[in-house]
């Protein structure tokens, strides 16, 4: 086994670790359930209230990259959830945990990485949130925490019931 795993885009051997990988998640937001095609779609949509039409626009974009770019537009920036920045790490963690709880095959692949250090890494990641560098590898740390939970059965995926 390798000493560390570097991941980012949903390509190659570690594609399933990517927040951009297509593992639809069903999440409760502001009292209603919504489906997001990737964890990234969920994270980006959560910058807005579910009652805001922008929430659904983001949610329904074809790619997570489009979703990310859309939230940077001035007409989007003005109506963000006031507490998004305060909760963004929790939001990402909820999205990632839902992905592995709702997709046993993804959980199995994550568990199979054993104790190897997971690092979200690419030249772009290096300068922004959650990746290696300024993001302090927060995403890798969240994934390792979820992996520990899976190993100790602190939460149960449908296949382990
Ligand atoms: Zn990256």
Could you explain how this protein is built, in words?
This protein is of the alpha+beta class. The chain has one domain: Orthogonal Bundle (Tetracycline Repressor, domain 2), CATH 1.10.357.40. The protein is 41% helix and 11% strand. The strands form 2 sheets. It has a two-stranded parallel sheet with strand order 1-4. The protein has a two-stranded antiparallel ribbon with strand order 2-3. α1 (39-45) packs antiparallel against α5 and α5 (84-102) crosses α6 (104-111). Bound molecules: zinc ion (ZN).
Judged by helices, strands and strand pairing, the structural class is alpha+beta
Strand content: 5-15%
The helix/strand order is EEEHHHHHHEH
CATH architecture classification name: Orthogonal Bundle
Kindly state the number of beta strands: 4
* pLDDT averaged residue by residue: 92
- Molecules bound to protein: zinc ion
What is the CATH third-level topology name?
Tetracycline Repressor, domain 2
Intertermini distance: 29 Å
Helix content: 40-55%
Give me the Rg, rounded. 16 Å
The largest pleated sheet is described as: 2 strands, parallel
**Order of adjacent strands in the largest pleated sheet:** 1-4
CATH superfamily caption: YbiA-like
Assigned CATH class: Mainly Alpha
Shape: globular
Total number of helices: 7
Residue ranges: pLDDT <50 for 5 or more in a row?
none
